[in-house]
Protein 1
Amino acid sequence: MTPLLQVEGLEVGYETGGGVFRRGGAGVRAVAGVDLALNAGEVLALVGESGCGKTTVARALVGLLRPSAGRIRFAGRDVEALGRDDRLAWRRAVQMVFQDPFDSLNPRKTALATLAQPLRIHRIVPRAELRREAARLLDRVGLSPGAAYLNRYPHQFSGGQRQRICIARAIAVRPQVIVADEPVSALDVSIRAQILTLFQELSRDLGLATIFITHDLTVVRSLSDRVAVMYLGRIVEEGPTDAVFALPRHPYTAALLAASPIPDPVLARRLLRRPLGGDVPSPADPPGGCAFHPRCAHAAAICGTQRPVPQPQPGGGMSACHFAADAPQWARPHDRILEEVS
Ligand code: SF4
């Protein structure tokens, strides 16, 4: 089956003086060769620490950044080779929800104007239907009755309500894919669960494929079918979510899982936790060999000199670690830790 959205060898680089460099250019590679595939209706979580390149991948996927190398295919077609009309159809089919709902709405536009713009540009409904369609969209994202919210400006909404409007704007054009870049991290904790539930409902009801970018592994577990773990511009592990949580096959994934919060403070104190040390290195000066080796508890001599090639793993995933086959000896998945101490 042809994936709905496919990324092959994606690289995105920034010139040191600012701006994105084009093919053949030089500078800092924020994304250094990413392969991904998203099937129709699937939810893929893209996880990793800040600065690993997740947002850059997201922006390239929706056409906001131009790749320095590699290919993005939509429904099997290279998006760089699309003509004007097909390109517009791709931009319509792949929509983005941004991290900060405060910055991503125009403060001078009412909810009606915000929603009417994409409806008009992509000719989703006749002009006479714009108001009714905008109200229906607000209803769909939980701002009900939608008609009562149409004439309000962004400052008259709470953070959670603004993110609902951003989601309504994304689904207004009947997309096939939503790329959600940390869509709950700027919201109050009490609101996050509501927005996550909304994403789940929309994926299920509208058959949307979703790329959900997050650093919160508890979100990944509840929301995604597959997970891809990024480190310093590359995917280091990818696979079905249950398989990755059951037995992570890259030390970085294992470290992220071991560092994820445990709600019971008594239980948390009883756990022997080895926090992930140091920061993500600068992409301007990446370590040689395996980029994770300066922070890896399992690094050996080969790790400093040879970059591991991604290899298929039992369970249907892949790992870029020289010692992935030894995972049963060093991986202590979150679930197993909880079982051991309970
Ligand atoms: Fe650690 Fe070596 Fe595996 Fe890299 S290749 S994750 S340094 S064990």
Protein 2
Amino acid sequence: MNLCDCGTIKRIMEGAGIGFRKDLGQNFLISSEVPIRCAEGCEANENTLILEIGPGIGCMTDALACRFRHVVAVEIDDRLIPVLAETLAEHDNVTVHHGDIMKTDIAALLEETKARYGLPSDIPVAVCANLPYYITTPILMYLVECGVKFSSITVMVQAEVADRLTAKAGTAAYGAISAVLAYYGEMKRLFTVPSGCFMPQPKVNSAVVRLALYQDNPYSTKSEKVLFRTIHAAFEQRRKTLLNALSSGFSNIGKDKLAEIIEKAGLPPQIRGEKLDITQFVTLSNFIYEETEIL
Ligand code: SAM
């Protein structure tokens, strides 16, 4: 069964008596080439355990199951669980978990799956998903903070979000999420997916990006909490100078002290936060941590 075929999807949905839920970001892929390219884009070997978020009716899951050792797919929509049991019946290496990814203990789910299927405890784990667009950034943050050492996170997102995720310091698209994710790994845009590749067709194009996660973080951070607070403060008021933005974000540190810290970090006094790359944010936040009683 070709799960990326328009007619097949319609038949499956009608057969189950269900429609697409816009509020859950249900735009299903109708191009069988795209899931294969996503699976290749993971750059993971075949002995990998894949976490998929939002399998829908299983178009991407099918491609992932054909290529990788095991797939765990987390789907929030209870109406799709019996559908997936049928569409993925031919694969014995897929586990469908009904739940909200944002409320799922991902580390525990992966451990359970390894134990149940006799997978090696040190099997590489990667994420591959066509993400629901209403919740892209929170999911990405949840994934990097969930305590699992993924080798990579390959996701389809709206093209404009892909621009933000891959933006370099000083560009218009560069934002807090670009800097925060750069702390965790190297982000790369892989390819564009036209809106015509989905049903129902969204208004905008999508793109696939891959975050290759650092297995040993190269940044010597004194406090991740202060680092992320510094980044968020800098972008909260991105039109202001870094000094003014930090004065608002760290109102309990005096402006003179912050000016001194900015100078110690080797940054020009009038610089804007949006010009700083992740290395500069780490240096700056280390000075904030060391020179103040923040925390
Ligand atoms: N993977 C399918 C495909 O590519 O055709 C469907 C992708 S569709 C863009 C997003 C999927 O994520 C939907 O199946 C939706 O029900 C599911 N979803 C939405 N929010 C979710 C959440 N918080 N946790 C898990 N799945 C979610």
